[in-house]
Amino acid sequence: MVAVSDTEVFFTGFPGFLGSALLERVLARGDGPVACLVQPQYLETARRRAREITAGIDRVDDDAVRLYEGDITEPDLGLGEESFADVRELYHLAAVYDLAVDRDLAEAVNVRGTEHVLEFADGHDVDRFHYVSTCYVSGRYDGVFTEDHLREGQTFNNHYEETKYRAEVAVQDRMDAGLPATIYRPAIVVGDSRTGETDKYDGPYYLLRLLLAQPDWLSVAFTLPDSSDAELNVVPRDYVVDAIAYLSAREETVDEVYQLCDPAPLAVPRFVDVLAEAAGHRTVTLPTTKPIARTVSSRLSSSLPLEPATLDYLDHPTRYACPKTMQALEGSGFEVPPFESYVDRLVAYVLENPTVGDGPMV
User: Fold this and answer.
1) Where is the Thioester reductase (TE) domain (predicted)?
2) How far apart are CA 134 and CA 132, in angstroms?
3) 3-state SS string over 226-246?
4) pTM to 2 decimals?
5) CA atoms within 13 A on the CB side of 81
């Protein structure tokens, strides 16, 4: 049995989009060494990203990131003979981020996987557990959803939302039993606000790519009966990572939940207009019902960049508020930039990188 006694931080979700950026922030502030649980199929990608990250940080050597093959869907995380003696903090980011995910896969990764990571944390007497959830544990809650909400009898748009909800319930139950943890709930995460970089074209990117697939002199988008009352709450990756890095380094954030959402999001019609303007497309919104829109989307999804599951967010009834987050970040310099201030960079990145896919890391 191999003991890694000097590993202070344990990560799941590397080399994912958020996990890679957060790992860099954690190392840059002096924490580590970091042990990363990596699925075998992503090991080479993880090695490359680990080299890039350590090379870009002064006074951090290559050994600061240690990769271990494993899988959160296995009871022992698939670590086999590996043993970790001094894990001080654990960051759990691994999940299936896919609105159309199959129920069994979502259950295995998001729910049972989180339970396995919680068991690992308990078995190693972890001093601090950091869990990345999602604002959309709200499901279709009708009203304002804050950090204090969770079990509200809500229905869910899809298996992703439902399993992330159940995973957070499991984490909060452990918190109630004494686990020192912090929960972070990002809204819809898009690319970096400074560069536009992303590694997955899902969520609002389906709408953007649908517009880009049509003539710029006249493009068509759907609008549903309740779209004018719905908000599309979008946050860029750099804000999410900066906020988690800042909050996770503070002792007073233990036992708290923080929603990393836009306190002033755009209504769906305005969001579509802003996206179309940035893409340089003259756009007409076609009023329709959700059943018709879903049927059309399903039939066209093989030839156009469409995902029928995204239609549920065009009339999403929930509004998100983040009073605890705003208070905790006050004076930090971290705040959500207006979508209008960086949408042009998101569009430019998509135009310059057409081969990026929309599939989750599973």
Assistant:
1) 12-244
2) 7
3) CHHHCEECEEEHHHHHHHHHH
4) 0.95
5) 2
Instruction: Calculate the CA 105 to chain-centre distance.
Output: 17
Lowest mean pLDDT among 11-15, 196-200, 285-289: 285-289
CB neighbour burial string for 98-110, b if at least 16 within 10 angstroms, e if fewer: bbebeeebbbbbb
Handedness of CA 161, 166, 169, 174 (dihedral sign): negative
Return all residues near 54 (Cβ < 8 A) that are at least 6 apart: 27, 60, 61, 62, 64, 65
* Core vs surface per residue 201-232: b (16+ CB within 10 A) or e: bbbbbbbbbbbbeeeeeebebbbbeebeebbb
- The H-or-E segment that residue 30 falls in is none
185, 250 contact by CB (below 8 A): no
Residue 32 has pLDDT above 50, yes or no: yes
Per domain, the residue ranges of the chain are: 2-189+234-260, 197-232+265-316+339-352
- Across residues 278-293, what is the average pLDDT? 91
